[in-house]
Amino acid sequence: MKFQPDSLAGANMISRQEPGRVWVGTTMHDSSVLVPWSGEVLHWPVPRFEALNADHFERIVALAPEVVIFGSGRRLRFVHPSLLRALIERRIGVETTRRPPAAPTTCWPASGARCSRHCCSTPTPRRAVDL
Question: In sequence order, which residues have a C-beta less than 8 Å from that of residue 52 and are 6 or more positions away?
Answer without folding.
Answer: 46, 79, 83, 122
